[in-house]
UniProtKB/TrEMBL annotation:
Bilayer topology: Multi-pass membrane protein
Membrane-spanning parts: 29-51, 191-210
Region (Disordered): 78-97
Cell compartments where the protein resides: Cell membrane
Keywords: ATP-binding, Cell membrane, Kinase, Membrane, Nucleotide-binding, Phosphoprotein, Transferase, Transmembrane, Transmembrane helix, Two-component regulatory system
Histidine kinase domain residues: 408-540
Entry keyword Lipid biosynthesis: no
Keyword ATP-binding: yes
Record field: catalytic activity: ATP + protein L-histidine = ADP + protein N-phospho-L-histidine
Descriptive protein name: histidine kinase
GO biological process terms, semicolon-separated: regulation of DNA-templated transcription
A matching Pfam family: PAS
Length: 556
């Protein structure tokens, strides 16, 4: 049975257990140190492994070269043929001289029978060699690592030839294998020093890289980074605001779910150039940065979007979108409601004045004058309403013009509809045109007040599916150098009110006109004043083919 570990010792063991570090800096440093150490050890091993074979080859070639030099001595073959193998003979003397000079372990000279004529040990002279000399005696040169009487050595064997070329013996030279191993062992410390230097450089580089990574990751753990990425994905795809990230080359790096909905894109568009997934237009110009500014309005797929673009350090940008479609619709409805309230207020004020006048005439018993006053007042309103409804068949727009006529009367300005005006009841966006006409009439009334003969004229014409709108006034007009800036948001000739700001009416007119593919411009009115012209292509719905027409040209 194994002994149970006391709870106190188990807690201590758990507390001192060495675990894998959590910080990115520590993990990267350890991994890079392990890689550098492994590469250094592998490189050292790969270098030392062939070094032994290389040293063996060098030793064998050296032994062969010494044997060839010895066999090239002309007197050695002649002496071998005319003397006997003795420890103090001339062959032994010459062989020992060569051995001491070259540092070889032995220089053995043998005859054709394999009998030694020289040897490091004089007692071996006259005996047969311990290895087979057949190859060398037959004329072949040999290099090998072999065992002999002196142990393991690197050998070189060559034939010994007389002047006539006849083989009379052989020369065998040996290099001690211990010297080869000593050279190998002697080179190891130097190799380890180089390996240690390379490892130190690798460790320093690993530390520098890890420190840089630590600064870039704010010393977070991998688990923290993973959690942040998960939270980022959840936030980007969960918020109700479109987000598009672009790189320095205009390619889409990221697009969240709301941006896909607002821009009619798909996840497969990630990585593609912006111009390849969006049609040319203001939306593309805003995303690419060709149009700059804050809270830029753009229209995409019938949606009114507010965009903001923020450049990034790498040359790209992050663009955010907010859907303002419902807000714009509510704003237009508010503009119409405000116009209706102004008209009712003006009518109430005018009605009160007329009632006071009528009461005074009755109290003065001027009954005929009272009858004439009532008839005239009712007739003016009836004529104005009839003129509008005869020329403008859209009920929203007609109601606006009737209401503005009442406001104009209260402010001392005459408002009329041009005689050649004719607008059928086929508007594609009636609230949009109501907003355009209402803002232009408000500006025209403000400009005409105070002129010598204050007058505002509205002309509404239709050509196939195009609507042409002209609003002219008898005001001071707009200088030629200011006609390009009057449609800029925030620009106005009047003092801003205490509760808000001016300079948004004409900017809204241009924005609504351009959203429908139209245009707006301002010019001088004949006789003085300003004239605003709005052209709205395809502002009318197509007339059903074969539909019967009424007396006014409208389909039943």
């Amino acid at each position: 049975m194994s002994a149970a570990i006391p709870p106190g010792q188990a807690a201590t063991a758990t507390r001192w257990r060495i675990g894998w570090p959590r910080r990115v800096f520590s993990q990267v440093l350890l991994m890079q140190l392990a890689i550098a150490t492994g590469v250094t050890v592998l490189a050292t091993g790969l270098f030392l492994a062939p070094l032994s074979d290389h040293l063996d080859d060098q030793a064998m070639r050296r032994a062969l070269a010494i044997a060839q030099t010895t066999a090239a001595e002309p007197r050695l073959a002649e002496t071998l043929q005319h003397t006997r193998p003795t420890p103090d003979g001339p062959v032994q003397t010459e062989a020992e001289r060569i051995r001491r000079t070259t540092g070889a372990e032995y220089v053995v000279i043998m005859d054709r029978r394999g009998v030694r004529w020289s040897h490091t040990s004089p007692g071996e002279i006259g005996k047969h060699v311990s290895t087979d000399p057949t190859d060398a005696i037959e004329g072949r040169e040999i290099m090998e690592i072999d065992e002999g009487t002196l142990g393991r050595s690197a050998r070189g064997k060559v034939p010994l030839r007389a002047e006539s070329g006849r083989i009379v013996g052989a020369v065998s030279v040996g290099i001690s294998y211990e010297s080869v191993r000593a050279r190998l062992v002697a080179s190891v410390p130097e190799m380890l020093a180089y390996a240690g230097g390379a490892l130190a450089v690798g460790a320093l580089a690993a530390y520098v890289v890890a420190r840089r990574l630590q600064r870039r990751t704010h010393d977070l753990a991998f688990s923290d980074i993973s959690a942040l990425l998960a939270e980022r994905e959840a936030m980007l795809h969960g918020i109700r605001e479109g987000v598009v990230a672009l790189d320095a080359h205009g390619r889409i790096r990221l697009i969240n779910d709301e941006a896909q909905r607002l821009l009619d894109l798909s996840p497969e568009d990630t990585g593609r150039p912006l111009e390849a997934v969006l049609a040319p237009g203001r939306t593309t110009d805003v995303l690419s940065g060709r149009v700059t500014g804050a809270d830029l309005l753009t229209v995409s797929g019938g949606r009114v979007l507010v965009a903001n673009r923020m450049p990034t350090d790498d040359g790209g940008a992050v663009v955010t979108f907010r859907d303002r479609t419902e807000l714009e619709r509510l704003g237009r409805e508010l503009d119409g409601t405000r116009g209706l309230i102004d008209a009712l207020r003006a009518q109430d004020h005018e009605h009160a004045n007329r009632m006071h006048t009528l009461l005074g005439l009755l109290e003065l018993e001027l009954h005929d004058e009272a009858m004439e006053f009532i008839t005239e007042a009712i007739g003016v309103h009836r004529v104005t309403a009839e003129q509008v409804t005869e020329r403008v068949h859209d009920p929203l727009l007609a109601s606006l013009l009737v209401g503005k006529a009442t406001v104009a009367t209260e402010r001392g300005v005459s408002l009329s509809v041009a005689g050649d005006s004719l607008l059928p009841n086929r508007l594609v966006d009636p609230p949009g045109l109501v907003t355009i006409v209402g803002n232009l009439l408000d500006n025209a009334l403000d400009a005409a007040v105070g002129s010598r003969e204050p007058h505002v004229e509205v002309e509404l014409c239709a050509d196939d599916r195009t609507v042409l709108l002209r609003v002219s006034d008898t005001g001071p007009g707009i200088p030629a150098d200011r006609r390009d800036v009057v449609f800029t948001e925030g620009w106005s000739t009047k003092e801003p009110p205490a509760h808000g700001k001016r300079g948004i009416g004409l900017a809204l007119v241009r924005r609504l006109a351009e959203r429908q593919g139209g245009s707006v411009r301002v010019s001088d009115r004949e006789g003085g004043g300003a004239e605003f012209t709005v052209v709205l292509p395809e502002a009318l719905a197509e007339q059903p083919a074969g539909a019967p027409l009424t007396a006014t040209g409208e389909p039943r």
